[in-house]
Task: inverse folding
């Protein structure tokens, strides 16, 4: 009883001291703040270039991407070398497209995500510059990291996306021979067969992929936007795909076997509400089954253990919209994309790539 009264009083104090838009439910897992023994380390900075995605290959190669949300994007994909050079990847020609140019097959138009997997780099191109309608089919370019040559291009089929889709992130499921993508412009997931290249849309406008609200709150200021299915994370041990809207507080999962082989009705019936969480952007699972994600509204990075408990990994001014995550050599890499802080001109804004050492959570 004393413990219950203490938790109740603590909850009241937190609510009275800080405005929050997180919807509380009786089944919500309480969050815990752990003492930190490590600090955020800056890996690279980008002045006037808004970084979103990051990935680190199994050999330690670091890649970041810059979506074409405005004019003046110097490169869509960049490799950060060991001596901290920022090189256009795979070369300058691939990154040379400018707004207003004719669309070209082998040039990046609007890269939203990069994912290194088994010595290949998967580059997700929305083909949607300036948040407009897609110029042609969204696609995934696959580069071999041994020679940096294009190995494969997957074009999404017309019945798997909409003119105003914004394909956001991807995960590679080699066990089921599939690639899974989220669509944050139009709520839904896309399942792409690695062998045939056929893409199928699932959970279209489903409650689990639809944004729960049209804003997030930073201090007392509303950031007005409606962002649907966004972050995804693949659990290869338990064969689950986790997914989350950006303007929402619900983490869902679906078995990959059903997602890869089931009918739309079977997939919809298999969706499970996993937990109520903070509003995140990207997500990632480590090999122990710990799920990392941001609390965008409160400048935090969170993690959820296998037992369901949710903890704070790090918080503060060094966390400025933690956008995308990658794990390498026991370090969590993340980008600060500062999306809520951007109004118009970003030429004097600095965006960063950072890392923090992980303990055995």
Result:
């Amino acid at each position: 009883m004393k413990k219950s009264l203490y938790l109740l009083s603590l909850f009241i104090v937190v609510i009275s001291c800080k405005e929050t838009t997180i919807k509380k439910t009786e089944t919500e897992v309480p969050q815990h703040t752990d003492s930190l023994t490590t600090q955020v380390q800056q890996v690279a900075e980008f002045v006037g270039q808004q970084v979103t995605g990051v990935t680190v290959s199994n050999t330690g190669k670091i890649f970041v991407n810059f979506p074409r949300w405005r004019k003046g994007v110097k490169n869509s994909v960049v490799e950060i070398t060991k001596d901290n050079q920022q090189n256009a990847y795979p070369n300058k020609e691939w990154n040379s497209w400018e707004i207003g140019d004719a669309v070209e097959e082998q040039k990046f138009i609007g890269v939203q995500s990069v994912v290194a997997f088994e010595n290949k780099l998967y580059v997700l191109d929305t083909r949607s510059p300036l948040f407009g309608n897609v110029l042609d089919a969204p696609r995934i370019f696959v580069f071999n990291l041994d020679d940096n040559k294009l190995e494969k291009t997957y074009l999404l089929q017309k019945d798997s996306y909409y003119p105003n889709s914004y394909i956001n992130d991807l995960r590679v499921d080699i066990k089921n021979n599939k690639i899974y993508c989220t669509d944050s412009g139009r709520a839904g997931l896309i399942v792409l067969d690695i062998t045939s290249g056929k893409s199928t849309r699932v959970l279209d406008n489903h409650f689990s992929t639809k944004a729960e609200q049209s804003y997030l709150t930073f201090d007392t200021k509303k950031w007005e936007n409606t962002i649907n299915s966004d972050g995804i994370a693949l659990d290869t041990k338990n064969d689950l795909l986790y997914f989350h809207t950006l303007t929402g507080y619900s983490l869902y999962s679906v078995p990959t076997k059903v997602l890869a082989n089931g009918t739309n009705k079977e997939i919809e019936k298999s969706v499970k509400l996993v937990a109520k969480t903070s509003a995140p952007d990207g997500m990632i699972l480590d090999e122990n089954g710990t799920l990392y994600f941001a609390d965008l509204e409160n400048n935090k990075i969170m993690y959820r253990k296998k037992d369901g408990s949710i903890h704070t990994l790090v918080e503060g001014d060094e966390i400025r919209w933690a956008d995308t995550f990658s794990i390498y050599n026991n370090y969590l890499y993340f980008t600060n994309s500062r999306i809520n802080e951007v109004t118009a001109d970003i030429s004097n804004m600095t965006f960063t790539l950072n890392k923090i050492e992980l303990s055995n959570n």
Remarks:
- Confidence is low (pLDDT under 50) at residues 1-37.
- The longest strand covers residues 350-357.
- The CA atoms of residues 248 and 310 lie 17 Å apart.
- The radius of gyration is 20 Å.
